[in-house]
Amino acid sequence: MRKLNIGVSIIADDAAVRRLLGDWISRAKEFRCVSQHASAATALMQLPTEKPDLVLVDINLPDLNGIQCVSRLKPLMPETQFLMLTVYEDADHIFSALAAGAVGYLLKETSRDELIAALREVHAGGAPMTSYIARRVVQSFQRPKSEPVGENLTGREREVLGLLAQGYLYKEIADALSISMPTVSTYIRRIYDKLHVNSRGRAVAKFTQTTLSTLPSMPMPPAARG
Q1: Is the domain of 40 the same as that of 72?
Q2: Is residue 111 part of a domain?
Q3: Which tens digits make up the pLDDT trace of 165-202?
Q4: Is residue 198, in this structure, part of any structural domain at all?
Q5: Angle in degrees, CA 67, 197, 213, rounded to 5
Q6: Domain end residue (candidates: 90, 114, 141)
C-alpha cells in the first residue's frame, strides 16, 4: 500500500492550470495539495514554512522565473524535491533548471496519469523526464571524455557561469557582481568561446558535469528580496 499524505505544492501563474493540477493531485490517494502559488515571490515567502514534500514549478512566472525560484528555494528546503512542468523544451531551460536544483522536467502536455507517476517516481528518489527531454539531456552530455571542461576559465568567468547556472538574467548578474551589462556580455562571450558552446544551456551542461559544486553561491537579486 502506498504511503499517504505526501504533500505537493504548485507554483504557476495561470489560475486554471493551478486548479487543474490541484484537482489531479487531490484525486490521487497518496497525495494532498498543500498550497498553490501564483508567483515566485509568494512561494519564496511561504513554502519554507509549508514544507511540502514535492513542488511542481512552471518556468514562466510574472516576477522571477521558475528556475530562479527553484535555485533560491532549494537551499532553504533541501529535503523538498522540485519538478518542472513547462512548455519550454530547449537545452537552455532544461539544463538551467537541473543545475538550479530540479530533479525532473516534464512538458505541460503530460497527462494526469503521467504526472502522478512522475510525482511517485520523484518521491521514490527518481528523476522523471519526458522521453524527448531525456534524449536532449543524453545528446548534450555526449562529448569526448578527454576534453577539458572549464580549466581555462578565470575566477570572474566562473562567477558569471555560476550565476548563469542558477538562472540569473544578465542584468541580475551585472547587479550581483557590480559590473556593467556590456561587461557581462563580454564575459559570457569569452565563456562560450572557451567551452566551445553557443548557448547558456550547453555552457552550464558542460561545466556542471565536474565543477558545479565549486561554483560560488551569490546573493539573490533585488527582485527576489522582501
Answers
A1: yes
A2: yes
A3: 888 888 889 999 999 988 998 898 888 888 877 777 77
A4: yes
A5: 50
A6: 141
Spatial strand order in the sheet of 81-86: 31-37, 6-11, 54-57, 81-86, 104-107
Tell me if 168 sits within 8 A of 187, measured CB to CB. Answer: no
In a shared domain, residues 77 and 26:
yes
SS3 55: strand
Q: Which amino acid is at 48?
A: P
* Residues 127 and 201 both lie in one domain: no
CA–CA separation, 202 and 127 (whole Å): 20
CB–CB of 2/28 below 8 Å? no
φ/ψ of 39, rounded to 5, equals -150, 160
| pTM for this prediction | 0.63
Bridge partner residues of 82 (DSSP): 55
- Domain range for 127: 6-141
